[in-house]
Design a protein that fits this description.
CATH topology of the largest domain: Rossmann fold
Number of domains: 3
CATH class of the largest domain: Alpha Beta
Oligomer: single chain
Low-confidence stretches: 1-17
Distance between the termini: 118 Å
Largest sheet: 8 strands, mixed
Strand order of the largest sheet: 17-18-20-19-21-22-23-24
CATH architecture of the largest domain: 3-Layer(aba) Sandwich
Radius of gyration: 35 Å
Strand content: 15-25%
Mean pLDDT: 93
Shape: elongated
Number of helices: 19
Length: 629
């Protein structure tokens, strides 16, 4: 009897030695490429990994000295050889940081890039494996063409060592639009619970969203279905992907995105385990707009408005407003292709209210509503900042005796100005209706355009003066005689206040041959009127989308009707630029025809498009190459 007791005691001790460690929390992970891991593993992902974070090798991996079914420190890759970083990496790291020191985390990752959820359905996998694309067959073969059974077999081994505490899923990109996807996931989940003798209340399912719409995710429409998963599986939870950065294909997360997704999985799991989760960035989702997908050619616009009922995007690159869609974090998004590189103003319309983009600091200077600016990069464009000498932009204030107030003016000086004593010709560039003295700088990008043209030898170094064109006495319609009275005030402001200030404060070449004047919209009308009123002061004048009526010309400039030859000999350049869709197109054409009748020589171009700053930049770049030559 005593001998029997000793034998039983020995068996009990051996059993205890192999008993489950209740503090060894094992998580089963499955899905497709984003769970498998598609981002390059970076140096930071291989350091400072706790010994309490373990991974069971799902397959033999000779390159890392791993044998299927054995536990190893969770140094990536955690799926198979040649896979990348996965959300599981930082899920496990975060749990190791937050759980008590006597707790250990283990993960088993069986995932297949590009697979449908059918790859893990017991009654579907056989047929699915037969029809799988050729590139997927090696991955299926790694799991003996039955990844579900493979995962269950590994899980049974793991249950000898610890307790399965949760199931992590990331899948859906290959099942886009399938409303029954939650039911398919439910069948996989319930099969795992049954085959491993688990209880749903103790083993939650945590599923992650695919790359979000607010990052231009190409599969983002699937998130609507993924978000419904808790309606089908009460013990499931969804991890938001909002704001998580993506790879250029807009399907996979990048390394930073995987790290954040992993932390978010952990933030969901920890409270379910009875522990406090760290403050997750999931609740402080960054809103970044616009996001330019350089490889995909798309632009994603975002605005956070969780209580809004409708949000639209309006921009000059659109023929009509476009509807945005809201995600579960209250961020409205839309991704569009913008075919032509340029700088475009845009805004949102939130429940009928026009608003600029609160996440974009690049704004359109204006007297009224300030739109946001979208720059579509183009290294060949003159507005692109290149490695060339850059001029300086200076903000100044001068005293206006004409208006009896202090007035702002912005001045560009070429790169060589600061280190020399040379004097330069001056180009007076006037803002349009409702624009400010900053608009030609911040929207027209005159400084960058001129930097590039000077470096290319296509433009003379010059000073550019950008005054505020509003004369504080209203803006009459350009077709009216009242507009000429406003133009007259500006001409006085220019000749009596602005030019004297500039020639006192800067090294300028004197004489009409060294002064040019041009402007957009109202500024174009002001420029024409000023130059024609003071031919003794200007030899170069350009109108960008503007005109003077024949009536104004006849009343204020009668000499043009009798001295065309003299005007032609004095003016080195009269130039008109207009877009064929500009609402002022017909009036500008009449102005040209009027000059044709009088025999006044002029140059110009007609572009496509309307009354836009995209056209204004084209006219600016064209005429800058003509001045002072």
């Amino acid at each position: 009897m005593k001998r029997l007791f000793l034998v039983l005691s020995f068996v009990f001790i051996v059993f205890l030695g192999k008993a489950q460690d209740k503090n060894f929390h094992i998580f089963l992970c499955f899905g497709q490429s984003n769970m498998e891991g598609a981002a390059r593993i970076e140096a930071q992902d291989t350091f400072n990994i706790s010994d309490r974070f373990q991974m069971m090798a799902a397959v033999d991996d000779l390159s890392h000295g791993r044998v299927k079914g054995k536990w190893y420190k969770a140094v990536p890759p955690l799926c198979r050889e040649k896979t990348g970083l996965t959300p599981v990496d930082y899920f496990g790291r975060t749990l190791a940081e937050q759980l008590p020191e006597d707790h250990t985390i283990g993960i088993i990752n069986v995932s297949i890039g590009g697979c449908k959820i059918e790859a893990f359905m017991k009654d579907r996998i056989s047929e699915y494996a037969k029809t799988a694309p050729e590139w997927m067959t090696p991955m299926l073969r790694a799991y003996d063409n039955d990844p579900y059974k493979w995962l269950v077999d590994l899980a049974r081994r793991a249950q000898k060592d610890g307790v399965i505490s949760g199931i992590l899923l990331h899948q859906g990109e290959s099942n886009i639009g399938e409303e029954d996807w939650p039911l398919k996931v439910k069948s996989v989940y319930e099969n795992l619970l049954e085959d491993l003798d688990l209880k749903a209340e103790q083993v939650p399912l945590i599923a992650g969203e695919v790359v979000n719409a607010d990052r231009g995710g190409r599969s983002a429409s699937m998130n609507r279905i993924i978000d419904k998963l808790p309606e089908t599986i009460p013990t499931s939870h969804v991890v938001s992907s909002s704001g998580c950065t993506q790879f250029f294909d807009q399907i996979h997360f990048d390394a930073a995105g995987y790290r954040e997704m992993g932390r978010r999985y952990a933030a969901v799991m920890l409270p379910l385990m009875g522990y406090e989760a760290p403050v997750s960035r999931m609740y402080h989702v960054p809103v970044e707009s616009p996001i330019i997908h350089r490889f995909g050619g798309g632009v994603t616009f975002n605005i956070r408005a969780p209580r809004a009922h409708s949000v639209f995007l309006s921009s000059q690159f659109l023929s009509e407003n476009v509807t945005l869609t809201m995600n579960k974090e209250g961020i409205w998004s839309v991704t569009l292709r913008v075919e032509d590189p340029d700088i475009y103003p845009y805004n949102f319309i939130v429940d009928g209210v026009t608003v600029s983009d609160p996440s974009n600091t690049d704004i359109f200077p204006n007297e009224g509503f300030k739109a946001s600016l979208l720059t579509i990069p183009d290294q060949k464009a003159l507005y692109h900042i290149n490695d060339v000498p850059h001029g300086r932009v200076t903000y100044c204030t001068y005293k206006s005796e004409v208006l009896d107030m202090n007035r702002p003016v912005v001045i560009y000086t070429p790169a060589e100005y600061e280190d020399g004593e040379k004097s330069y010709p001056v180009f007076y560039l006037i803002s349009g209706t409702t624009d400010t003295e900053e608009t030609w700088f911040k929207v027209g990008r005159v400084n960058t355009i001129l930097d590039n043209l000077i470096a290319q030898g296509k433009a003379k170094p010059m000073i550019v003066v950008m005054p505020y064109g509003n004369m504080m006495n209203g803006t009459p319609m350009p077709s009216s005689l009242q507009a000429a009275e406003m133009y007259k005030v500006f001409a006085n402001e220019m000749t009596e206040c602005i030019i004297p200030f500039i020639e006192k404060e800067f090294r300028t070449l004197k004489g009409r041959e060294n002064r040019a004047i041009a402007g957009f919209s109202r500024g174009g009308g002001q420029s024409l009127f000023t130059a024609f009123s003071h031919i003794d002061k200007f030899a170069w004048v350009c109108s960008y989308s503007a005109y003077l009526t024949p009536e104004v010309m006849d009343i204020y400039f009668p000499s043009f009707t009798t001295a065309a030859h003299e005007i032609n000999s004095q003016m080195k350049l009269i130039w008109f630029g207009i877009g064929s869709e500009d609402f002022l197109f017909k009036d500008v054409v009449k102005n040209r025809e009027y000059f044709d009748t009088l025999g006044i020589e002029y140059k110009g171009i007609t572009t496509t498009g309307g009354h836009t700053w995209m056209n204004a930049r084209t006219y600016l770049a064209t005429t800058l190459q003509m001045f002072f030559k």
